[in-house]
C-alpha cells in the first residue's frame, strides 16, 4: 500500500476489496484478527456486523503463536543484509519476494511442526509467556 493506512483506506482497500470477497468464497468462515486497537475500533466492528462476518473471539493478552512471526523475522534479517537497501516500494517488494523465496522449505515445515510445542508451552504456562 502506498501512503498511510487509515480506517477508510483499510475498509475500502483491504476489507471490502480483499477480505470480503475471499470470505464469501469460503462461507461459512470465521475471520481472525488480534485485539490491536485499530481492529477493535467501532467502525470496523460495524463493518463486520453489517456484512455478517463472524469474528473469532480473541482474548486480551493472548499469546502470539503464529509461525508467520518467525518468518517475518527471518525476512527482516535477510532484508537488513541487502546493500544498497531498496530505494523504491517496487524494489522493496522485489527484495521481500526474493528473501521469502530463499527461506528453505525445510525451515518452513519445521515452523509448522512446532505448533504442537508452542501450544503445549502456552498451556503449561497457564496462557503466560511461552518463549515463542
What can you see in these coordinates?
Helix 2 (42-50) links the parallel strand 1 (30-31) and strand 2. The two termini are 29 Å apart. A two-stranded parallel sheet has the order 1-2. 55% of the residues lie in helices and 3% in strands. With 132 residues, the protein is mostly helical. Helix 3 (68-80) crosses helix 4 (89-102). The chain has six helices and two strands. It has helices spanning 7-24, 42-50, 68-80, 89-102, 105-113, 115-124, and strands at 30-31, 54-55. Residues 14-81 form the Tc1-like transposase DDE domain. One of its GO terms (molecular function) is nucleic acid binding.
Low-pLDDT runs of 5+ residues are none
The percent of residues in helical segments reads 55-70%
Mean pLDDT: 87
Shape: globular
Main beta-sheet strand count, sense and barrel state: 2 strands, parallel
**Strand order of the biggest β-sheet:** 1-2
In angstroms, what is the radius of gyration?
18 Å
N/C terminus separation: 29 Å
Strand content: under 5%
State the helix count. 6
